[in-house]
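Bug #2210: C-alpha cell dump truncated for Ran guanine nucleotide release factor?
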Amino acid sequence: MFLCAHPLFGGALSAVIPHSTTDVSELREIPDNQEVFAHAHTDQSLIVELVEYQEQVADQDAAKYHFEDIAGSNKALEPGAFEVTSVVALAKSELSLSECSSAWMLTGTQCVSKFNEEARNTVTLHLGLVRLPQFSTDVLISFNDPQSISPDSSSASAVGTHQQPWTVQDFERLLQTLTLHDPGLFG
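Reproduced locally. Full output below:
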C-alpha cells in the first residue's frame, strides 16, 4: 500500500496520516496551533499540536509534563484518573524531523469525559513529543485510543464498530514521517 504525506499547517509540516481519517476542522473550529483527525468508524483521534517549548523542563521529563497538562485539560488529575506506563526516547535517526533536539514517546491512560459529560471513558493516550528549542516549540502528537467507553457516554455509539482501528504502528509512522518544510511556521 502506497502511503503519501498529508500536509499539516498549510503545508509547513507533513506526515503520513492513517487510513479512515476525518479532518475535524471540516466539522468544527480547531485552534490554529492544532491539526485534529478523527477515525471515521471508531472513537479514536489524532492531534498534532504546536505548543510553547518548556525550557525549564528537562528533555526526559517533558513528555510527562505535557501528559499531565493534557490530564488537567481533560479534568483527569484526581488520584487514579491518569497513569504513565512508559516513556522512551526516540532515536533521531528514525525520524524525518532532523531539526529536533530530542524526541520521546509516552504511553499512559486517562479517565476522561467528552463534552463535559458525567460519564468517563478510559483512554490510552500515546503521546509523541518532538522538541524544537531553536523555534521555541514543542510538537505534541497525541493518539487517543479509547479502551473502555461508558454506556452513558456520547461515544457509546462507536462501541462495537471497530472497523480497522488505528494501531500504535500507525501512530509511530506519523511520528517518524513528520517533516518540516517551512520553518516560518514558528514565527
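Output looks complete on our side. The CA atoms of residues 14 and 169 lie 17 Å apart. Marking as cannot-reproduce; reopen if the truncation happens again.
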